[in-house]
Amino acid sequence: MGAHRDPAVARAALVREIVAGGALADPAWRAAFEEVPRDLFVPYYFVGRPGGYERLWGADPDPARRARWLDGVYTDMPLATRVRDGELLSSSSQPSLMARMLEVLAIRDGDAVLEIGAGTGYNAALLCHRLGEDLVTTVDLEPEITESARTHLAAAGFHPAVVTGDGARGCPSRAPFDKIIATCTLPWVPSGWLAQCAPGALIEAPLATGLILLTVRDAGYAQGRFLHTPAYFVPLRGVAPGPERDVPYAGGLPHPGLESELFRFLLALTEDSLDPYEAYELWRREGRPRRERFGVTVSDGRQWAWLDDPQGPYTWPLRD
Question: What is the per-residue pLDDT for 259?
Answer without folding.
Answer: 58
